Structure formats: structure tokens, C-alpha cells
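Lab meeting minutes (informal)
Scribe: AK
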Amino acid sequence: MGLTIAGILERPHFSESEVLAGNNGLNRLIKWVHIMEVTEIGQLLNGYELILTTGVGWKENQDLSFSFLQQLIENNASGLCIELGTYTNIIPEKMIKYAEENNFPLIIFKKQVRFVDITHDVNTLLIDVQYKMMSDLERFSNKLNQLLLSTDAFTGIIRLLHNYLNLQVAYFPVEGEAQFVPRIDQSRRETMVKAFQETPLTESKQSIAYKPIEALGHKFADLVVFLNSEGFTEFESLVLDRAATALAQDLLRELYVTEKKKYNERGWVQNWLNGEYHTEAIEQHLSSLAPNFKPNGCVVCFCKSDLLNDETHSTYYSMIIRSICEQQGFFMLSFVEPSAISIILVNKRGADDWKTRVGRIIAKIDETEMAPSQAKSRIDIGIGKWCSILSRLNESYQTAQEAFYMKEKIGTESHLFYEDLHVYRLMPSLSKTGKLEDLISEYLGPVLAYDAKHNGEMLTTLEVLLDANGSKKETAERLFIVRQTLYHRIEKLKELIGDDFMRSEKRLAIELAIYGQKYLKL
């Protein structure tokens, strides 16, 4: 569908016209007819215009006429019609040759014609064509909507697209096998798959038209149409776009239904998080959910957000995260609690880079709009220890919660991996038994008492000195004090906590006490 140069030439006003060059371009589409008598086009054209001119702008100046033709071709005009007689009598051979080389229709009128009648006739026809195109597109959209209500919308949409375009249609998922409508033999199938995979797709590609199938901000597939020699019209492009949108809607519905089913499996997931299953039972259950992968370790991410108070939002949230996780090589299960969700990431790839990939997931979650109808809400995440044995997932679950609560206590904006807590891992258990306070009192009590009484900086001096491995020069520089002042402080520290405070065993205990003091102050 669409009006071409060839179609225009059949109109009564073109009955005595002659095509001098560009016969191979007569299938060019026309979107408007425009009268132009200037020689500098600039930004006057949008593309796909059929230009009418008497040549008054260049008359017999061959350089100007050739420049005018070059500008039309550069601006993607559809063709040029020249009236001979009044201002110019001949078309230079140079113009004819250049138009032929570029398959650009060059048409002449040997008698005077009324441009006003041509523009009225053709533009009216274009409006009629546009109206018919929109009506046909509306009918196509209605059929898509009907298919979206059916049980097998995917197959119906692909077939409907093929029937409308009468071209080979293919669906290339990011993961999985390509599907072709109509079906083709294995040899041709392999050729098309190879062409699709090895050739970068661009908007200007002549043999393929395509639209990505996207949902929740992620690409799931490409809907591809293999073109014939006639090219791709505007109507066909719009049909492809509507079909791609319908497939995305069907995919989103399928994802939501799948997520609801997984949400209803929360009892099994909760038992796994609590450590109630053996590895063999876990593998059997996972194989029933996703038969085509072998688990290679797992980790739990504990998340909190106000969005999770609503079941609809928590399902939508899980659906988005699942999409992100799949792209990073993880199969995801979730357990939703009030205002919280525990995300189980079961690894489908090698385990060496698991932390890097989880980091990418978290970064993507941070930049993704999670609530479909709300302002962006903060999502806080703690990541547990990596478990190579599936039955020990409860350890990752517990450590993920510890990392999350430590994140809240520390007040950091970044998401915490349990393995990055280091010495802070010991603090909760030491604090619960009262041993942390005892440790601080024994090793730092005199220093803290001195600072409180004299408004001193002995604790800060001690911390920097230990961090600088006893280097007096570096310590003085970091404290912005002269060396002599530092020497006096070190002597005072020796009085308070002993001459041997730099001895390795005692130093380690003092450093642990300093971390404990920071933890209690948080």
C-alpha cells in the first residue's frame, strides 16, 4: 500500500509526460507533491516528495540545474518533473546520466501543464490513500486485540502478520529456537538464521525489516520480516510495529501469569530457605520448573521496599527482577513477606563471576522504574554468602538478612554483600552476648575516658597509627599535626594501654575493639 511514481504516471495529467531517466526507481513512494523554483533546497524538504518545476531558478545554467538535482537526491526526494518551453528547453546530458545512476525518476512535460491541477489531484489521492491506510491499520489492530483474548495469541499474531504482508515472517527469541511462518525447509531455515545472526540489523538494511519485542524495559526477541524486491511500505512498517506491540503485550501477560504461579509456590520456597530439603530433592523440584539447566550454586538477596506492601506490586516487581536475572544467567525464585522479598538466584553459568553478575543485576534494579503507576521508590538490598551446595541455602538467607540490617545500621547508600562485611560479621553475635562491650572496655576504656575528660583525640590518633602500620610520618601527615605532637600522643597512649599496644596479638584485639566501638555508635 502506498502511492508510487509509477502510479502517478497513470493519472490523466501525466498522459503526455516522458520519463527521461530513472525507470528503475519508478517504485519510489510519494508522500507529497511540491512545486519548487528555488536552487538552494536547504531544509525545505522532508523526503519522499515529487518535485514540480519550470526551471525558472536555473534557466539555461547547467551547473545550477545539476546542483538542484543533486540536492533533491541527497534530501531523499522521490522524483523530479520539469516543464520544458518557458524557461528551459533542454535537459543536460549530465543530469540525465546522474539521475539514471541513482535510479531517480526524471520526468519532463513537453507542453505547458497546470501544476495547480497536478498538486490538487495527487495530494487529494495521497490523502485518500492515507485514510485507507489508517482504516486498514485500524482493522488490523482490532484483529490483534481479538487474538490477544485467545488462548494462543502468539501463533495467531504471527500468522496474521504473514497473511497481511504475504512475506516470510520469523520470530527470533533472545534464548531458544527461531520460529518461521510459513514453515520452511531446513536448508532455507539455516540460511535465514545465519543471515540474521551474522549481519548487524540496522534501520537501513534492505533485505530485512524488524522490530524488537520488549517488555519491562528488556528485549526478549526480534520480530523479523524478510523482504522481497519491492521494498517495505509505510503501511507494512506500521503493521509490523503493531504486531510487535501485540506480541509484547502477550509476553507481558504470560510473564505475569507465570510469576503468579511462582508466587503461589511460596511454601516450598520458604521451606528451602529454612534448610528443610536435601540437595537431591531441591534439584528435582528445580528441574520441574526449568528443565534445561543444571544448578551451579546459589545466593539469596534480601530486599525491602514500600512497593512490596501491595501484592500486585510485589508480583510486578518479581516479574521485572526475573527478567533482569535471566539476562545475567540466573534462574530466580522469590519469597514475599510484608514489605520484604527474598530473591533466590540459582546460577546457570560458571561460578567464578557470580558476584560481578549479581552486581549488574542490582545496578539494573536501581535504574529501573519498579512501580507501574508510582514515583520511583528506594529498594534496599543485602546479599548473602555464596552457596555451592543447594541444601545450604539457609546460610545464604541468614547472611543476606545480616548484610541488610548491617547496611541499615551503617547507613550506607550502597547495597552490601555479606562477604564484604569482613570484621563487622562478628559484631552482632559479640554484642548480643555482651562480650563486645567487655572487649571495648578492656582495650579502649582508658583511651575513651581520657578523650571524654580532656576533649582529646587519642582514639583517632590510635586508629590512624594502626591503619598506617605504625608509620609516624604517615600518621602525622594524615592527622595534620607536627611529628613532635604525635610523639607526645604516642607516649600518652603507652601510659593508657601499655607499651606493647603495637604487638601483633594485642594490636589485633585493639583494632577489633575500635571496630566494635564504631559499630555501637552507629
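Next up, CB showed the second protein from the same session:
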Amino acid sequence: MKAKLHNANKTREEREIQAKAIKVRLEKFEQYAGQVMAGLSIQLKKQIAQAIPAMLDHMCSPETTAEIVTEAMKQAPILTKEDEKNWRDVRNTAVSLVSGLIEEKVQAWDSTNMYFDKMEHNLVNNFKKEFDLIDERHHEEIQKALDPDLKTVPDNTKRAAAAADEDDDDFSMTTGGKIALGVTAPLWIPLTVATGLSALVLGLPIIGIVAAKGNISEALEKSKFIKMYRNEESRRKYFEDLTKKASNAISENKELVALVERRLAKPITILTKLMEAIPNLVAADRNLLDVLAAESRGQDTLLLLYQPLVGGCRLLQGQLEMFRMKNLSKYLSLDRILKDNPKKIGSGQFGDVYKVTILADKKTIVGAVKVAKAPITVDTVTSFLQEKDNLRFLNHTNVLKYYATAASVHDGCLRVGIVTELCQGTLMEWLKDYKTPAKWGRDHAAMRRMYERSFSTIQNMGVQLCQGLSYIHGKGYIHRDLKADNILVTTDGTVKLADMGLTKKMADQTGTICGTPLYAAPEVFSENAEYNQSADIYSLGFLLLEMWYGVPVYEDPVFLKKVVDKITLPAQLSFQSQLPPIEPWQQLIKKCFQRDRNSRPSALACMKELKGMKI
């Protein structure tokens, strides 16, 4: 639907150009995906090859042999005078006893060391991580062609993010991964049900034992066997020899590879499904591309056709995500977190914030949980999950750190919360309590040293703000609601971008007017409302003013009127008793307030300018 809506906003010539770009990117993506999947296949084969000697080392070790012999001596049948005529049955029973003990020892080794369980877990996790990267690469390749302004994320940063995701609370995978595997659950473990696999017990191939029987059964005649078996030392030596021959016969048998493959059936099945999914994914893209390229209807007709369907798609998305949260996802219990009546430390339009203590990564952590005031609905679940996913993915000193998601269901209603690091308060709260440079007024000359310290403090906070903004822009995101109330400050003065509910991948930006109107860039209100990361830079201009003056810009009626009248904004407020920003500060604000979005500096450029300022 998004592709068709993008298509509707383009002329036929522009569509043809995009179609060619997508074809090239699809070919590159297919090559990339093929290389990754080939690497995973090699990894699986190596793991299988490594498992066999590890198992044999244990099975053939002197310690294991001694344990089997001791146990065999205890359980071995007694050969009485009456049993001599059935001596072959005794011998066969002894061989079967040894084979059973060998299998028990290997199973005990696997169970105790969880060798195959660990191998399976590591393989499945790595398959998940690699496929998530493939899925993200696929998304970015297509969206980059649809939106040439999109900056793709380098592979190394995506890998770091994927590694950070590994310990997430709900172990979710991407939608593409779920579709590829033919399951909708966010857990990989239920794949055993989807693929018909159940817990497998390690069973040694009987061919090896049969071979051992063949090697030994004719080795001793009746009289020699009976004489040997009745002597305890000879019988012990017989069981030791039998154990070694049986172990060697098993190790030389090719079916041992099949045994390991059977034990690792889950990752093998997953990899097979993923390898089948890549060509299907590309084929679906090519089919869509053909449909888009063949579209001959005009822009007005297409917009009239597809625009109303967007609402229906969003409703369906909300319903699916609600089902997932209620039935498939694993979260911390919100009831348990809130049962001790934690201290409320903040409250906003959409939720309350409490100081809480949770256990994360086997450590007790003091954090904050933001709890939605109203139960989540199909209309609000997407925004909530978007904020959660943004905080999970964006890992930076100047972005609020995510710990976990908490949820509880009562009478069918879902209450949710996001647990994050604890901060002192919002940037606006901090600014109101701090004597910013403007507040020194005429005293700034007499109190030069304190004025300089005040400037140095807000300069540092401005640099941190730009660092956080530059980071999320580098990841391909737009914040879309940048203001001092959505920025937090820790007790040591670290600035944290927060309230990420409206933050979106630039490629996913569909022209929705959102955020706080006062701080929004002019292009946000344009007819198509198409904007990019420079919209955040326009909002940064307001923040730089507020950081200098220590008050919200709307407290200045003169400045507010200019915002409402949509005229070029000044780089200072009209408070006569307060000190205006230094010239470099004003020049940077003017650059941020450029109405032409292409003329605004990047967040990185703003950071460099701030760093270089002196008073």
C-alpha cells in the first residue's frame, strides 16, 4: 500500500526511473542475501562436523569406558551350569547391555552439558540475527529507491544493533522473518510445532552395535566364552574390549552424521526455510515492481483510490499487534512492578512516570516506568510499539536507555509501560531552575566567571543534544517532536532524547502531520507534508533559543505572533531585561530557521559549530 501511495505521487517518468533503481538494488540485495545464507550454511556444516568428534571424545574416553565396564559388571547376567546351552543368549545380552550403556552415557553427557541444546540455541539465534539484517537490508534497499534522500545504515551499525537486540524482553523477530518461516509468533521456539519437530532424544545408530556384534560373536567358541565369562577379571576385560569395539564401530559408521543432523533438525529446518524465503521475497518485489511499472492511471485517480485504504490498513495493523501483545509476547508483569506503590516522579498527557526497581541482566536496576494512563487499544498500540522499538534499536549515550517492556491484562484490557533508565527531569524543568546566560542580564560583566560557566554548561548540553540527534539521523530516523519537554536530563547533566513515540524511519514517513505544531518546520504543513530529517533541525532552533533564555519561546508574545504569522523567525526573544544570545549562537539559530529545508545544516554541523563557540 505504501509503495502504491508513493507511486501515485510520481509522474510516469519518475516511476520509470524508480523502477530501474529498484531493479538494480534488488540484484544487489539478492547477491548480498545469497552470500549471507551461504555463510550460514557453512556455519551449520562446521557445527555438525565439530559435534561428531566432541561426542566421540566423550564416548571413547577411558573414563567413560571404565564407567560402562563397572556398570556392565553389575548388570551382566549370571552364566549358570543350566545356562551353558544358551550361552549365545548371554553373549547377545552382554552386547546389548554394553550398547545400551554407551547410549545412556552419551545421552547423560548431552543432558548434563546441554551440548546440542547450546549449539541449537546459538545457531537459531545467529540465523535470526542474520535474517533480521537481511530483512532490514531489503527494506532499506527498496525504500532507498523510493526515497533517494534516505541515508542507509552501514552494516556494522546494524550488526551492533542486532547484537543489542539479542537480550530483548520479548525475543521478537522481524515481520519478514516471521513470514519467511510461516509463523506469526514472536518466539522461535514454537517453530517446533510449525515444522512438526518435537524434542529429540539422542539415539545412537544400531548399525554400529550390529557391527560390533559381528566382530565379537564369532570370536570365541562356546568353551572359551564360558571359561572367560565365569572368571571375573576375564569378564571385566571382555566388557572393556566389547565397549571399545562397539565405540569404534559407531565412530566409523557414516550414520553418526545423520544422528547429529537429526539432533539439530530445528536449525537445519529453519535455515532451509530461510533459504527458500529469499527468492520468494525477491520474486514478490519483482511482481510488485511490474504492477507499479504497468500503472497507467493518473495521479489524481490513484490518490483517490488508495488514500482511503490507508486507514483500513492501519486498523488491521493495530488489530494484529494487539493480538500479538495479548497472546504471543513475553513481557515483565506491570502489576508486579507497581505493586509496591512506587513513587510517581512525573505525569504527562499520555502517561505517568514512576520510579521503580527491576531485575535486568541478573542485576537490580533502579529505573523509571512510563505507564499509559488509558489501556492500549488498536488505535494506540502501534504508537506504543513504535516507541518501544525505537528505544530498543537506538543505543546511544544521548538517547534514553531502554530496559524492558511491562504489561498486564485485566478484563481483556491491556495496560502497558516502558521501563527505562532514571533521569532527574525534563530539559525544560532543568532550564527553569538554572540561571542560563540570558538571565545574567546586566550582571554578566561583573559576574564574568559565573556567566562563562553558565554558557559553558548550556553549550555542553547543546552539543550533547546535537550528538543524540546526529546519531538517530545517522540511523535513518526523524524524531518529529523535538522540544525541551521531550528531552530528559540525568543527575550528572547528561542529555537524553526521549518520547520516541513519533520517531520514525525516514523511509516509513508517509507525510503525516504530527508533533507539537509550534515547533514544527514549515514543510510539515505543506499539502503533501513530505519532510525529512531537516525538520528536526528547524525544531532545534527553538531549543537553542530556550536553552539560552531558560524559558519556553511561547512566553514571548512577540515571537509567538511571528510563528503564527509564518514569517521568518528572529534569533532572539524580545525580553529587554535579559541578555540576547551571542552572535555565533544567533547565527546558528538563523541557519536552523531557514524556510528552505535544503539550506539547514545537519545535526553534526550544528554540533561542530556549538563546540567552537566562545564568549
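CB comment: The two ends are 53 Å apart (CA to CA).
No objections, moving on.
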